[in-house]
Amino acid sequence: xxxxxxxxxxxxxxxxxxxxxxxxxxxxxxxxxxxxxxxxxxxxxxxxxxxxxxxxxxxxxxxxxxxxxxxxxxxxxxxxxxxxxxxxxxxxxxxxxxxxxxxxxxxxxxxxxxxxxxxxxxxxxxxxxxxxxxxxxxxxxxxxxxxxxxxxxxxxxxxxxxxxxxxxxx
Length: 170
Description:
The structure is a single chain. The chain is an alpha/beta fold. The protein folds into 2 domains: 11-70; 87-165, Arc Repressor Mutant, subunit A (Orthogonal Bundle). The chain is built from 5 helices and 6 strands. It has helices at residues 57-70, 87-97, 107-113, 120-128, 155-165, and strands at residues 11-17, 20-26, 31-36, 50-51, 105-106, 141-142. The strands form 2 sheets. A 4-stranded mixed β-sheet has the order 3-2-1-4, with helices on one face. The protein has a two-stranded parallel ribbon with strand order 5-6. Helix 3 crosses helix 4. The protein is globular and about 45 Å long.
């Protein structure tokens, strides 16, 4: 068995939060990913780079902002983002970033907003492969009936985030 080479210039670290352990990865351009440990679509080592030892400006700031957000002390993120994806995925992720805190939308609404009204399933795939969990709020996308549907980090995590943001009542 061979292992894929690590991406040069990338680094990652683990962060323990009230919602579980997250892995944060960054390169020279910005944050490339935030994944909940053991979630679906968890990246392989080749996408992460080496373990960040010591200070790392992007990872330090991302960790600080994420912890403040989950504590209810911060309402949004101001981080340099550098996710890798197709043009369509990036369009979906850009749309996700525009969903206000405390609001939700559906896959179909995103497809219509992108002028691709029959692309709800493709939107769902792009939402599911969002590498910037929480920062690019894919948890704000619900099913057409308003039901909490699939979330790579788990439905309980999605529910906790929507409760934190006031989109759901306890």
